[in-house]
TrEMBL record:
Stored Pfam families: Pyr_redox_3
Cofactors named for this entry: FAD
Organism per entry: Nocardiopsis suaedae
Keywords per UniProt: FAD, Flavoprotein, Monooxygenase, NADP, Oxidoreductase
Protein name per UniProt: NAD(P)/FAD-dependent oxidoreductase
PANTHER family, sorted: L-ORNITHINE N(5)-MONOOXYGENASE-RELATED
Keyword Oxidoreductase assigned: yes
Keyword NADP on entry: yes
Family: Belongs to the FAD-binding monooxygenase family.
């Protein structure tokens, strides 16, 4: 194992300061060490793992299958690790990340419980100076933000929350150790992926669960199950090929690319296709059934109708079923959820839905939640209210680039980043899965590996050329950002008030943030840029 060349206690003299020690930050440390560079990662959490450190809520599980949601960079690693279920749960993913950290001896270059509180580019010394919440300042030539896309909870926006006398639990800040709901009345606010996963599990224990829904969401069955050893072995036998297919696929998950419109097949055939995807379970099967579900409203409506029919036949109470049927946005334009028994949970005694469109939320009270129609007593309040997605964790560090330019000022009209990797005016700063990259529309681990490899290759190339400063060219950035908006404009995505659009955070500019052109297309673009000697970047 190569040893890190930097003395672990030295606050200065780093080549690279990494912010975050989840999937991205840890792989960065590994790659940078392999290049002989001094790198250190600051991690706000008390442990490594990022998303999977924080999201310990009941039912937390990935919506990408285990065999795909894992690192591919080391063939021995992928052979030696075994998954137990088709979709990995939070504890199993965290155990995997911890295994990787130990196997590659990464922990000694991570400072946990250390938040990057401020960062400023020092143009004189050509270094980033990063101050932690503990008051330590680090200087590093490069700053790589591996802060995650969904890591900064948004303000819940619930009046009177501080008056509530019971437990308040945010899904993304879930306590360590068991949270017992036995005999308790639980209010859950929010019906995105987190709420939809948590509700059926909490309902198994709690005396009462009241779900406060503002926007009904599309949710598909996960059909999670144990992963049979022979099934796992079959993938492992051809893992290299499987990974290569993932990298060349639109979503970072191998699979058939649909080549037909939903509207060009007879209804019976289309329905059979949707049934097949529904029964197989998972997110991408349904979305990939036809090639125009995210671009043509009529095609999309065929899938949306199918899902609404499944909700209607699952939920016993017709009024609840109707309230659960999503009608405010096309299927897939908000991240669809995958669930294990969400709709059926409403058939249990003690589980009820409160439709906030019919009775708006008034706020929290000392002993529960109030709406325009009445009071709902609760012992626990679960906030599944989501994140300041894609930009929140970046602007929270408040990076200041050339001339003191602040990132949130540079992004006042919406985030612009060249290739989702670098921001003009912020030299030597890179973002892993930043706005303008496929990121949240893809299997995150595939996108993370790609960015980490590309960024570290660029740093190595700059060093070889004797360049100390790498910066995105503003004109190249403008062209890429315009391209992202053009591609998004040809889809149905902008029709939803989604966190993809920044619409869930009051005052946030409304811009479609991820790149919807596909992992495969994006990979070609990045490879061409690297082959051209990093056209669109200034190296000096
Ligand atoms: O957050 P969300 P999430 N009053 O923003 C509601 C990933 N993820 O944590 O839609 C009332 O999706 C809000 O209502 P509305 C995945 O990418 C993946 O669930 O704004 N309601 C919405 O219903 C996912 O998309 C996995 O009208 C309020 C909910 O809270 C992303 O993370 C698991 C409210 C927030 O939904 C975020 O998911 C979990 C208020 N004041 C997460 N404020 C898997 O891999 C907010 N809401 C399976």
């Amino acid at each position: 194992m190569p040893s890190s060349p930097h003395p672990a206690t030295a606050p200065d003299g780093l080549d690279v300061l990494v912010v975050g020690a989840g999937f991205a930050g840890l792989y960065l440390l590994h790659r940078l060490r392999g290049l002989g560079l001094c790198a250190l990662a600051l991690e706000a959490g008390s442990g490594i793992g990022g998303t999977w450190h924080w999201n310990r809520y009941p039912g937390a599980r990935c919506d990408v299958e285990s065999m795909d949601y894992s690192y591919s960079f080391d063939p021995a690693l992928e052979q030696e690790w075994s998954w137990t279920r088709r979709y990995p749960g939070q504890a199993e993913i965290l155990a995997y990340i911890e295994h990787v950290a130990d196997r590659f001896d990464l922990r000694r270059d991570v400072r946990t419980a250390t938040r990057a509180a401020a960062a400023a580019w020092d143009g004189g010394d050509r270094v980033w100076r990063v101050r932690t919440d503990g008051g330590t300042t680090y200087a590093a030539r490069y700053l790589v933000m591996a802060t995650g896309c969904l890591s900064m909870p948004k303000a819940p926006g619930i009046e009177g929350l501080d008056r509530f006398q019971g437990r308040v639990l945010h899904t993304g800040r879930w306590p360590h150790g068991e949270v017992d709901f036995t005999g308790r009345r639980v209010a859950v606010v929010g019906t995105g992926s987190s709420g939809i996963q948590a509700v059926p599990v909490i309902a198994e224990q709690a005396a009462e669960v009241t779900v406060f829904q503002r926007t009904a969401n599309f949710s598909l069955p996960a059909n999670d199950r144990p992963l049979a050893p022979d099934e796992q072995e079959a993938v492992k036998r051809r893992y290299r090929e499987h990974r290569a297919q993932a990298r060349r696929s639109p979503t970072g998950i191998p699979g058939r690319k649909a080549d037909r419109s939903a509207l060009e097949v007879p209804e019976a055939e289309r329905t059979a296709t949707y049934w097949d995807a529904w029964e197989r379970g998972g997110l991408f099967g349904m979305l990939r059934s036809y090639n125009d579900l995210t671009t043509d409203a009529d095609a999309n409506a065929t899938a949306a109708d199918f899902i609404r029919e499944r909700i209607a036949e699952t939920v016993d109470d017709p009024a609840t079923a109707e309230a659960l049927a999503p009608r405010s946005h096309p299927f897939g334009t908000k991240r669809p959820c995958i669930d294990s028994g969400y709709y059926a949970a409403f058939n249990r005694d003690g589980v009820r839905l409160v439709d906030l469109r019919a009775e708006p939320l008034a706020g929290a009270t000392p002993d529960g939640v109030a709406t325009a129609r009445g009071a709902y007593p609760a012992d626990d309040l679960v906030l599944a209210t989501g994140y300041d997605a894609m930009t929140g964790a970046l602007t929270a560090v408040d990076p200041r680039g050339r001339g003191g330019l602040r990132l949130h000022e540079a992004w006042a009209e919406g985030p612009t980043a060249h290739l989702g990797l670098a921001v003009a005016g912020f030299p030597n700063m890179f973002t892993v899965t930043g706005p303008g990259s496929p990121s949240v529309l893809s299997n995150m681990v595939v996108s993370i590996e790609q960015h980490v490899e590309w960024i570290t290759d660029l740093i190595a190339s700059a060093r070889e050329r004797g360049a100390e400063v790498v910066e995105a060219d503003p004109e190249a950035q403008r062209r890429w950002s315009a391209h992202v908006q053009e591609v998004a404009g040809a889809t149905l995505f902008p029709r939803a008030d989604s966190w993809y659009m920044g619409a869930n955070v009051p005052g946030k500019p409304r811009v479609f943030m991820p790149y919807p052109g596909g992992v495969d297309v994006y990979r070609d673009v990045l490879e061409d840029v690297a082959a051209s000697g990093y056209e669109g970047f200034r190296l000096s």
